[in-house]
Amino acid sequence: MKTKSASNWSAAQSEEHYGFKRWGANHFSVDSEGFVQVQPLSDGRAVRLMDVVEEAASMGLKAPLVIRMQDTLRHRVTQLNEVFRKAIKEEGYKGEYRGVFPIKVNQLREVVDEVVSAGKDFNYGLEAGSKPELMIALGMHEGGQRLIICNGYKDKDYMRLALLGRKLGKKIIIVVEQLSEVDSIIEIAKETGVKPMLGFRVKLQTRGEGKWASSTGDNAKFGLNTAEILFAVEKLRAAKMQSSLRLVHFHIGSQVPNIITIKAAVTEAARFYCQLAKMGFPMGFLDVGGGLGIDYDGSRTNFESSMNYTVGEYARDVVFNIREICEASGVKVPDIVTESGRAVAAPHSMLVVEVFERINKHESLGKQHQPKSRHKIVDDLAVLLKNKARLGRLERFHDALQKKEEAFSLFNLGYLDLENRAAAEQIFWQICEQIDKESDKAGYQPEELHELKKLLADQYVCNFSVFQSLLDSWALKQLFPITPLHRLKEKPTVNAVLVDITCDSDGKVDRFIDLQDVKDYITLHPLKAGQPYYLGIYLTGAYQDIMGDLHNLFGRVNEVHVFLEDDEPNGYYIEEALAGSRISDVIEGVQYQWEELCRRIKQQIDHATKKDLIKPREGVRLVEFYESQMLAKTYLNIEHTGKKKR
């Protein structure tokens, strides 16, 4: 029976294979020509991402490239607010929704600016978790009705800044995270003569789920336990500041996968709110924190990279549970605050990387260097390769593994030469490939043989740094959807893992989304000589833009901001293009002066010229080259030869 050829493969099959309809939230799809397109507003208008990549390249901005779909960011802000408004109306809730965007998720000016603009009609505010973030929030915040929520550890200057905002007529709520903060707030309020608006962050007993479950419970980093809340209440009463307490806040972690956890946390926090209201405090706001998830893998489960609920269900459950507890307690319902950052920001940007090299085991292991005199260990492996019918797959694998280890031992002891070691390795990998192909047809596969596909997978070398652009993949094993941007009418036939250009062995992506589980490889297309091959890494708009480091001094990547525009030929325009870091930029970031380095190199070249090690003209060219590289981009400058195709 013949397998379906690559030529019979369709764009629709690629769309299913990579799971676009599961994780894409109606924003991403594959067009009939096999190109990935994005629908920022899910209204049918689409932008082909390869068009953006090629236009950016024509502007001198090659991959690695961040593409921001600013309309998607606006759409997510609008969607969240409208979903809560709908839930409030349907549940007959008497309060309002007063969401805030947590700046820590992405502090970049272009992101915060777009969020503030999109939230204008909804009184959508900002949340700050540090003094620098508060200074951004104060400057970017507009309108007297939008909230600014102040979280995190606070010194007295942080508190003074918050009260400065109160003087300007802003609704700023300082959330008390530690009991010691209450005394400082009382002192600063008296010093400035400004009445603060305060909230208490409570330590819930409801446990979170997923990677950030430790955000709750007795050992949580932030928040007041029940006894500390009572102490804080006494301090406010003694200072005659009862009227300042307006909010109860909790946070059960980022990316909460299970709606049951959210329901339980909201119920517990609503009890705290009602108790404080009954104690005579004016209250008015219940802040349910962040945690609204993103379905990175498309499984729609309570797996840590997914979520088993929709945004609509989240809003309805928050509204319903607060209303139920308040009505049962005879307390007026509060305005509801959420700090959903990941759900707002993640879908709006993606990272484009170029694959420029393939590391392949069986192609590089000695096919052209057969030994003149074959060792018995090589003959034994050759017999295993030829007599595949005699033994079962697992037994052959065990025997081949034993012979491979034996060959390494013989080599280390000096009894096996280099040519025979290479031949042994080559035949071992041929046996593994043979067993793997048989396993695809055999149905059941022993656990040990599951590892074969990972062992045999090629390494596709991509021009980017995991540590700069995809930090959560390395640090937290976060899954992100990854697909080719083009050639999706061709059948993908190469199992691969992705490796970056850093000199760190951890600079790789070897965990990929799968509907059933996590895969150790991704299926991609063979590379074509002289032709670029681009991959898209999606849903990277939360945290990845801002948390990268300077490992190997690669720095920020190129970036373009894209808006829909019906009058443009391809349906969009690039509103802003930002060049990535130059070598001089990152060098200065680690306390070198690039001009001083150039001066030192010139001195060394002048010295070599005087010793007649190099000629004067060559010395001048070397100085010019060194200085020109200071202004070059940090990532590889990949050049293609031959006819260029998509």
UniProtKB/TrEMBL annotation:
Keywords, in A-Z order: Decarboxylase, Lyase, Magnesium, Metal-binding, Polyamine biosynthesis, Pyridoxal phosphate, Spermidine biosynthesis
Cofactor(s) the record lists: pyridoxal 5'-phosphate; Mg(2+)
Domain Orn/DAP/Arg decarboxylase 2 N-terminal, chain residue ranges per copy: 96-346
Molecular function GO terms recorded: arginine decarboxylase activity; metal ion binding
Enzyme class: lyase
Domain named Arginine decarboxylase helical bundle: residues: 373-453
EC number assigned by the record: 4.1.1.19
Keyword Magnesium recorded: yes
Residues the record marks as active site: C503 (proton donor)
Pfam families: Arg_decarb_HB, Arg_decarbox_C, Orn_Arg_deC_N
The keyword Methyltransferase belongs to this UniProt entry's keyword annotation: no
Top-level taxon of origin: Bacteria
Record PTM N6-(pyridoxal phosphate)lysine, positions in chain: K104
CDD domains: PLPDE_III_ADC
Ranges in a coiled coil: none
Domain Arginine decarboxylase C-terminal helical: 583-636
Matching Gene3D superfamilies: 1.20.58.930, Alanine racemase, Lyase, Ornithine Decarboxylase, Chain A, domain 1
A Gene Ontology BP annotation from the UniProt entry: putrescine biosynthetic process from arginine
Similarity section: Belongs to the Orn/Lys/Arg decarboxylase class-II family. SpeA subfamily.
NCBIfam families for the chain: PRK05354.1 (NF003763), speA (TIGR01273)
UniProt function note: Catalyzes the biosynthesis of agmatine from arginine.
The protein, known as: Arginine decarboxylase
